[in-house]
Structures are given as C-alpha cells and as structure tokens.
C-alpha cells in the first residue's frame, strides 16, 4: 500500500523517527502545570504501550489510549488503572492496521480513525463494534491520510485528511455531508492538517503541522481566523502534532519538536506553556498527543523508549 510522502513524515514522527533530531532543546516556559502521576510502560500486556498515538477522556474521566504499534485501544480509569481493551491487527471488524485518532460522542460511542485502512470504526462505550464507514480515494467522502477526528454537539464528525488537505464532515451514521479546505497557504487552506477539535459553540479548530498554525471555522466550514507561526517564541510552533480543548474552550497545542504544550484562549491568545515534565525532571522524549478531561487534568502521551501517559494538574 503506497503511503503519501507527506504522510510518511507524520508516521515517522509519531513513531519517534525524528526524536534524535530534537533531543537537547531547552524548555522555554515555566511550568504552570505539574505532573501528578504517570502510568504505562513498554510491552504487550494489559496497560502497556508500544506506540500510544492518541488519547481521549470521556465524561466520567475514563481514558482511551489508541496504540498505533499494538493496533488496539486500551481503556483506563482516571487514576490510570487498566479496565479493558479492544481491537487487534487486521482488516476485519474491530481490527486496525494503523489507528490514528479517537473521538467520543455524547452517548459514549467511540469513533476510531484508521489512517491505513482509511476508515472510521464505531464502538459503544464497552468496545463492542457497531459499524464502520470510509474508503480510500479522492471522491467526496473518501480518504487518503485521515489523521484527526472530532465531533460537535449535533453529532457532526469532522475528519482532517493530511493527504487531501481537506476536512471532511459526516453525520453520526457515517453519511457524508460536505468538506472544506484546499491545499495552499491562504485563509481556509491547509498543507498538512493533523488535528481537529470543536468548542462548546461548535466552532472548529484545525491544526496544521506544515503551516504551523491553527485556523478556526464555523460549523459549516466558513473560515473565521487563524493564529500561530514558525518559531520558538510564545504562540509559535515548530512541529505541532496534537490539539485538545477544555470545557472553557481553551486550546492545548502539543509540539513534538519543542517538546511542550502551549495553551491559548478561544481567540488564539497565548496564555501559558509548559515543558520539562518528564520523569525525574527530564523532558519527554517524543510527546505525541494531548487530551484534557472535564476536571481540567491534562494528559500527554510519550512514545519513545518508555512509552507512557503523563497526567498534569495545577
């Protein structure tokens, strides 16, 4: 199966291929959040990880960790205790080849995006398979390199495709609705959209690794504004890889080259950042994804050498 060249870069980064290049960068921010605890280790057993690529929290505080190396999803309670897992490697129902993202709707249903299978599989909250949708191609509703997924209050699914430089929109049954965006450097255009989140007003924020920015759209895909640029100053990015949003509509952008998380308000104003939060005071080796629970805890996955989930609170 041929992998789009630009997507190959994303896969390498999420697997740690660029880690050596980025080691030794100094932290730029004083920590406003501190590590409360961490959980997980390298391995194939329950509660262990190979390549934790995405993480999400449900309304009860349970955590869902998508592992692109194990090709499964593991579920933990808010203290990091393993509850159950589902999925295996393959091309059948409830199987994955390279799961890349996860979203949770208001009923607790799970939408797991698979970048190599170019589809979305839907599960109930216990991990029971319900249905799937999506296929490879350039026609409306098809994918090339889907890597980000979010769902709004009305059940619309927004999927960022880093191969097509579009955001595709579906209903909760997987019916294609519309898409927005195109390749370019103008307003409403993308060059490598890797992440997407939706705020409480159903505004859509799309993170672009190549353009090193975030753009906001209304629920119909109309461009509103953007923020971010390339650099190491506050509010700038080097290789932004993941985006999350809290209940107050603050945005959390994880950068796996800077090895930090920067926090912005809903208008894109920089608030603070934090880094240097690895074990024993060391920095994370290669942070890959970020999520925020309703109680304000921030979760960051690390993928290199000792893959784990780090939990931050004030």
UniProtKB/TrEMBL annotation:
InterPro entries, alphabetized: 6-blade_b-propeller_TolB-like (IPR011042), NHL_repeat (IPR001258), TRIM-NHL_E3_ligases (IPR050952)
Keyword Repeat: yes
UniProt KW Repeat keyword: yes
Positions of NHL repeats: 36-79, 83-126, 130-173, 177-220, 224-267, 271-314
Gene Ontology biological process terms from the UniProt entry: proteasome-mediated ubiquitin-dependent protein catabolic process; protein polyubiquitination
Any GO MF annotation of the entry: zinc ion binding
Protein name per its UniProtKB record: NHL repeat protein
């Amino acid at each position: 199966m041929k992998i789009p060249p630009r997507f190959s870069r994303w896969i390498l980064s999420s697997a740690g291929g660029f880690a050596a290049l980025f080691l030794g960068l100094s932290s730029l921010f004083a920590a406003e959040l501190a590590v409360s605890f961490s959980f997980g280790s390298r391995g194939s057993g329950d509660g262990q990880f190979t390549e934790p690529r995405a993480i999400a929290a449900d309304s009860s505080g349970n955590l869902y960790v998508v592992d692109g190396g194990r090709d499964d999803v593991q579920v933990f309670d808010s203290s990091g205790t393993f509850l159950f897992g589902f999925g295996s490697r393959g091309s059948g129902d409830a199987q994955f080849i390279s799961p890349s993202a996860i979203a949770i709707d208001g009923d607790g249903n799970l939408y797991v995006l698979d970048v190599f299978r170019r589809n979305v599989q839907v599960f109930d909250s216990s991990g029971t398979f319900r249905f799937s949708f999506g296929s490879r191609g350039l026609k409306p509703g098809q994918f090339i390199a889907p890597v980000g997924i979010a769902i709004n209050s009305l059940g619309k699914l927004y999927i960022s495709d880093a191969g097509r430089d579009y955001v595709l929109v579906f209903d909760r049954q997987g019916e294609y609705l519309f898409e927005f965006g195109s390749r370019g450097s103008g307003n409403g255009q993308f060059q490598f959209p890797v992440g997407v989140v939706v705020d409480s007003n159903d505004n859509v924020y799309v993170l672009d690794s190549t353009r090193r920015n975030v753009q906001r759209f209304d629920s119909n895909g109309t461009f509103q504004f953007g923020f971010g640029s390339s650099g190491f100053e506050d509010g700038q990015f080097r290789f932004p890889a993941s985006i999350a949003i809290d209940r107050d509509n603050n945005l959390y952008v994880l950068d796996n080259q800077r090895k930090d998380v920067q926090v912005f308000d809903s208008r894109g104003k920089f608030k603070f950042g934090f880094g240097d939060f690895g074990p024993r005071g060391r920095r994370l080796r290669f942070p890959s994804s970020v999520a925020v629970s309703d109680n304000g805890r921030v979760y960051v996955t690390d993928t290199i050498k000792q893959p784990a989930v780090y939990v931050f609170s004030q």
